[in-house]
User: Fold these one by one.
Assistant:
Number 1:
Amino acid sequence: MTFFNNVYTNLKPVSSLVEIFKDNNSIPVPEDWYVVIADIEKSTKAIEEGRYKDVNTAGALATIAISNEFGTLEFPFIFGGDGATFLIPKDYLEKVKDILIGTSVKVREFFDLDMRIGIVPVRSLVEAGHTILMGKIQISPYYVQSAIIGNGIHVAENWIKRKEEFVVKNNDNFVYEPNFKGYTCRWLDIPSPKEETIALIIYLRTSTLKQEQEMLTQVFSLIESIYGPKWEHHPLYEKGLSPAISPRILWREAAARSGKTTGINFFLELMRTYLELFVTITAMKLKLPLKVYFYNLKEIKKFNIISSDYMKYDGMLKMVLAGTKKSREKLITELDKLEQEGKLYYGIHVSNRAILTCLLQTNSYQEVHFVDVADGGYTLAARMLKDKISNDK
């Protein structure tokens, strides 16, 4: 199946998030589309057990499985730490549902985690008075990122958690085999280039798109005034990227490729993963001119950094920032003021390192490298934010 030619495909990418709000750079999501969300239930318990990387992997597997069906990464999705959100036209809904149910079966098999799948019609959101628009940002020559504006995704998440009618029923006997080719994760956790790395989620309390743009601009100015420009707070840097030879890390990739956790096919994929890693490490160390897909292997770290997904927007700003403890304390002071003024809510999780999960669309030159924070990242930041919203009602 090739990906459809539609309003999203034809949207022109812009160069920054703020530009999404200008002119015709974003458009309403068609009312016959659907918000589809796949997330891990009881993710906090898994985090407490030290399995956040498994939780993180689940959303990545859902994304690459859909990408492989359509042959592209250029479709509207947002990775959220413990899952992913997709915008899907009605003609492709049943196929995507099959892919995600199949993925949920594999996630349970691989990691003993339960993936919830929720589907909300965009028409229902619009009829209830909620806003949902989409746009595209050109992050690098190899990655076009989706941006979703308005409160539609936030509302859809709440509906899925509170209303059974929006949740897809589990089917343990489902036989669809999703294709996870292109999922890869061969880096150790990335130490902060400064003192710490934080996951930050900000929900803007606005009632119009103009207010949303103005508040977002104000937040960006605040962050840059404290943390400096992008190159000063980016969580990834070449010296911090070290290849992982941990059996547990490479086990995930071999399982994804083979669709199994034991047997000859799994073993062969595990050996293949180790061999590819050895070749990559050798090429990086000796600066060998070896090429795989569009990669010069000696420059693979640079490719990972320029196509990283360290900042995104789905009606909430989600960022991973590297900085000092003093910078974080100053940021919290300023965000507390804005929160007390009723302008936003925020959630934050602090660690000393980031984690990286990579997707390569092997039928094209497209790639994305999801950045999160170790030991809970976006998931715990989101929990803090949701607790604030609940306590405020």
Number 2:
Amino acid sequence: MKGYITIDKEICKECHLCIQACKQGLISPSGEYNSRGYRPVCFQDEAGKCTGCALCATTCPDIAIEVYRD
């Protein structure tokens, strides 16, 4: 199964729990700041490794991640 995620950069508070939760290593810190002064995470999956397991979304305390599965 393939999947992908979207991250609401305005909600993300830079806790990085999703980075640790992603078994594929597809989430990384961003260099940009949001309007609240946090540097949100970003999702990069050019190789299509995301399975849509939702571990990242489950660990996000701010509910900033949505998971989609194909």
